[in-house]
Amino acid sequence: MQLCILLATILVLYQGSFNHGFVLDDNLVITSNKHVQDGFSGIGDLLKYNYAHGHAEFNDGLYRPLSLITFAIEKDLFGLNKTASHILQVLIYALLVLLLLLWLKDLFGENSHWPFFIALIFAAHPIHTEVVANLKSRDELLALLFFLASVIYFTKWISERQTTQLLIATGFMFIASFSKESAVTFVTIFPLVAWFKAPKFKTALTGSIIMMLPVIIFLIIRQWVLSELGPVDSGVSSLLQNSLIENDGFIERMATGALIQGLYFTKLFLPINLSHDYSYNAIEVSTLSNFTSIICLIVVGTLLALGVLATIKKRWIGFGILFYFITISAISNVFILIGAMAAERFTFAPSLGFAIAIVVASHQFIRQKLARNAILYSFIGLLVILTIQRVPDWKSNFTLFTADVNKVPNSARAQYDAGSAYIDEAKVDQRMASKYLNLARSHLKEAIRIWPDYQDAYNNLGISYMNDREYDQSYLVYSDFIKRFPSYTKARYNMAMSCYNLQRYDEAELHLEEFLATGIQNKDALYILAESEGFQQKFNEAIEHLNQLAAIEPNKDRSHSKLAMAYAITGNEQLAETELNKCLEINPNNSETHTNLALIYMNTGRIVEAKKSLETAIRLNSSNQRALNLLAQLGS
After folding, report:
1. Is residue 395 included in any domain, yes or no?
2. Are 204 and 83 part of one and the same domain?
3. pTM, to two decimals
4. DSSP assignment letter at 556
5. Angstrom distances, CA of residue 295 to CA of 261, 281, 328, 333, 344
């Protein structure tokens, strides 16, 4: 019965995610990851390269192949099917909650009324929507899933002492480690379980030490893999990702870490205004002069002391508190800096410790069963309502970014994400395009105000003007941008497009040459460069660049069409005819190409061929007025 309630709760909460799309960093792990897109044949590469290699081929310092392997298998079984992926994500979550319930029943023994409440709070908590509704967070799901499978067998081994159980436990822990690196903190949970469950702790401690072996083996493999891939770019060096990078003193790290824990405690107790982003400057770097930091430090220290003292006395509230702090330690930005200030997904495993502590505390301090159950069910009901409200936000980038930006208004990236989402949505909804582009500009300007060095925000601000055909404004944006950040190559291209549309062809040529000089092979840049040169009557340069374009896009006719025009203007009608015939080889049904070829025939006195070409042009497009007029001139 309890299992049915848990499964029904999960289905009610997350069935709405089944028709969600690929959101946030799903491109990194699925849609733009070449190793994942290779399916089964890409699994070998996923094992021998770092996490982001298939997306951008740089060493992000992360090694967590298991979730990527599941996506690769899905790709071969179901294609690029977002519905199948989301259904599987929810099924994994359901299986995880099932294992959680089984472990808790074994862990607490006679306290059989605790596991259901703990599992239900965990299942319903809205802070988990990021993990369940966002496919990229499958690494979090799998890490906790396989840890639970491991600790189930470890707990059984404590009471039954069968070697097979310990071996199975180590196997599952090995798999958990390959899901996400932070799973290595789980190894500290085993001696904690042994302390509470083992009649002879020293004997059980031996088993806990054995549980370290799979983690050590994983770390050796991880180091071996990453050491072969060049220098690491973990994202920590970016101020946008982690504000502590420029204020990494011990005091600042402790004070800011306490603020982050205060944020997590708040979201666990009252999970409202949830956000996908807490980057610069949503959480400001703090010092001990900040009163809030001092309060948070006192709370953290008090809870830690309470957890240790309660654990020494083998009281389960201590188990819950220490479970939280153990599993949050690696991503707390206190002991090591990571590639993010904070994230709700980081609380996924620690929230289990929160749920344990809450349920145990309620049973210890509220003796009246009816009142206690009423409070717990009311809290669970609130969690259910908030999760149902939160899940739709994860439907698409547009729904997520626009829903979250006002919750963290001081986050430069949240402002940037919202602005970029409005630009993309303006392309889809033409009726709302002008309004969306105005909103985009508002958010992008705010992102730049928060972080004046936000180059991508500058770039997209210019794009918002370009997409609204306000080229004079985009010109001003990119002029200032290039002066401040001359090495940002995309700005050169977008500046060139602004100049081209303003008919400032000499400037467009200059910026495109700068852009292409970086070694980027961009077909559209070559085409616009040739056009800009053509408008300036630099036909030799235009011809050179059009020939380059023809070589790298042999199946398109635009380069040959422009080459024909350039040759015709410069009086080389033979080469113009050759290029037009190449156009027809690629696209024989282009009415304009047949019309242009007819003009060549007319200029060289081949009237019969001209008529045939014009008749073909009119047959392909009966409203081709130019062909109709030319045919009339020929007397037909």
Report:
1. no
2. yes
3. 0.89
4. -
5. 11, 21, 19, 18, 21
